Protein 1
Amino acid sequence: MMPLVDVRGLVKEFSRRPTPFSRSSVVRAVDGVSFVVDEGETFGLVGESGSGKTTTGRCMLRLIEPTSGQFLFGSRDVFALKAADMRAVRRDMQMVFQDPYASLNPRMRAGVIVEEGLVIHGVGTRQERKDRVRELFALVGLDETQLEHYPHEFSGGQRQRIGLARALALRPSLLVADEPVSALDVSIQAQIINLFMELQQALALTLIFIAHDLRLVRHLCTRVAVMYRGRIVEMGRIDEVFREPAHPYTRALLSAVPDPDPRAQQQRVTFDVAATDLGAPLRDVAPGHQAAI
Amino acid sequence: MIQDPPLLDVRGLTTEFVVARKGAARTVRAVDGVSLQVQRGETLGLVGESGCGKSVTALSIIRLVQPPGRITGGTIVFEGRDLTTLDEPEMRRVRGARIGFVFQEPMTALNPVFTIGDQIAESLVVHGLAGRAAARSRAVELLEAVRIPEPRKRAGDYPHQLSGGMRQRALIAAAISCCPSLLIADEPTTALDVTIQAEILDLLREMRAQFGLALLLITHDLGVVAHLADRVAVMYAGRIVEEGPTATVLSRPAHPYTRGLLRSLPGSAPGTRLRAIPGAVPDLSALPAGCAFSPRCADREARCDQRPPEPVALSPDHHTRCYLHTKAG
């Protein structure tokens, strides 16, 4: 397998402007993150709020500009590209957002939302684009009769299907999905997860799945990186990390998920930040399994 | 054995909203004939998806449903009195004092311009349980009880100075300040990270034991229910479709909706298709004539679409509303 994604030493700092009550300060949201994702792989990026997982995803697509680091996407050095070249690369990597209510323009019809990327990138004739949108609607399980509907006429699950159709319109090879089901009802989540798995297989997509729900990540991903305070603290094959978590934070995180099986005996592990060296570099704990311990 | 009357005994609770749709006023029944009981010291989990009526049920119990919504039927007997018959001043003496409330989003539930110490002390003063100074020191004790470090110092903090988990702790301290017998917690951990959620669930369990609280826990998370609830009631489209001891309902679910929810959770075989429930949650203003779940149900029969099924007892403490468990005819 060829690595499609090779992120090296990604750093993103946000500066806070001074207020009458505080001096300006710099927050390092992502602090030297490196990982490799093979073509066709589903890579999970997990962590709690503020861990830097969303910022990592956004930097990769340069929706926000990284402070430093390198991102090799196939043969292209993404962070070194000029804006015009970046636009061409973006065709090949797309994002699905968390909130299907906020991420669709309420004044645009569903068909137009899905078509927009094709128009911007000047793909095909008018008729070819219309056909492609129909094809995409069928692909994500939406009905052709809904092409002219506005976002508010769709349920949350259907809106996420629109978001997915929009992301797939330009036939990207990489899809970054940021918490794509966390805003959906439990009974709908499974439908969308199934859709992700189907599409990934059918289209040979490489998928980076950003999530806080460890059960979902375990189900969907082949490898996982656990983030804590801007750093990857553990990374490896999904079954390895879940079976033999090596970092104390990963252990605490895994033990904190309440199990719906009433027979499960859960022993909760707490994470003692003070007793942990947060600056420790990742090292191999088993083949293909690293932890910052 | 004569059982004590339940602490909270809700029967046939119906709450309706009048909504304008396409120019015409329509009545939407958000809660439709809900009956539930909570014994002293017991935890009942009320489970369902968004829009199923679980939060409106909770707001109805403390009579905080805002117009255009109103309670149109049923009784809510709490500590021997029917809350639906109380006037507003009497009701105010129940809210906060006898029934505590914890909301989902701790930032919006706290007032940003008062210190958390003041906000915890407030209900003690309002309910005449303590003077200002006594209430202040009680607030510090309560912050200590909910394990907030340096409680004396933290009492002087404003909500924005606390993390999400700490805010939820402060809110729990305020909710239990008057030693209520019932605490209603509406998605108390949904806005929190999973490690913080685990801490808050532990805290609720502790407070329940320490203060002899009964808990009505509203959540969409079956894991949270398994963790905390003695009994569980599953709501769908305004009705309770299954109710019973938590272990029984989660290991031997009787209603196709409960079964579907549990089956759709990821967990067993990674990488395989999840067994999703088809379709979507129905629009409450356009419910089918029969069982509201029947359009999504694999076990649907002809009679399901005629009239909603009545509750059936599978055992003395396990009930469901489904024709699968009633003889045809």
Note: DSSP finds nine helices and twelve strands in chain A.
Protein 2
Amino acid sequence: MDNSSSKNWMQLKIPALSSNVGLARVSVASFAAECGFTLTEIDEFKIAVSEAISNVVLHAYPNREIGKVSLTARFQDNCIIVVISDSGSGIEDIDKAVETSFSTLDDRMGMGFTFIDSFSDEFEITSAPGEGTEITLRKFLRSSEQNDDNV
Amino acid sequence: MRTEIVRKEDTVIIKLEGEFDLESAQGFSSAVSDLQWEDFDKILVDLGAVTFMDSSGLGALLSRYRDVTAAGKDFVITAPSHTIREILGISGLNRVVDIYPDVETALDSDGKEETESDG
């Protein structure tokens, strides 16, 4: 692994469709592999990404045509940073939304943000009702020897 | 995700292969709902070939678990990967659903089996 990974980034802009959830997480997984994350770390981070994209598909655009979801990933300071954003309905109450077992949909477990919290190292949400939501996920590279043969 | 249904005596084995997420959860739910309840005593969901699962897959499992047990039948899971065991543990589903290391053990057993995620 050379130091090019420290300057690497990617961007996806895709329709918020359930069929695109896999595309988004596999893209991030490939990017994370280039950054030196282990398979176990990638498996776990994929869950966090999948939950964030699924939230957009399920909640962001309830009453109109299929909206867009934007995903960017970059590797910086031994950390992969993924930002997922939409221009949908936004979240009325973020504190409530992140509670385990809370969901506005009857057939959902409300575990999405719990898994995001469990399988990323840090996450933050900004949202404005009627304007959209942005969620940032971070996962740090645990052992620098995995990719720091670049000095 | 590919779904294969095999009947073995009083058990229906649902073998899943691939990624169990928002896109595939509905197909799994439909496959279980389409089964004839009176024909069997146990549903066994084999996760041995499931390469990914998130809360959408988990929710589909929990919903079908509720349906099956409400009908007086058993619902068990076999062969989850390490990461899937983790999410079963975080959600608490491992405390209500019997989890077996493989299909053969589940078929041979008529009681509770190990459910811890470590090991």
Note: The beta strands of chain A are 9-15, 68-76, 79-86, 122-128, 132-140.
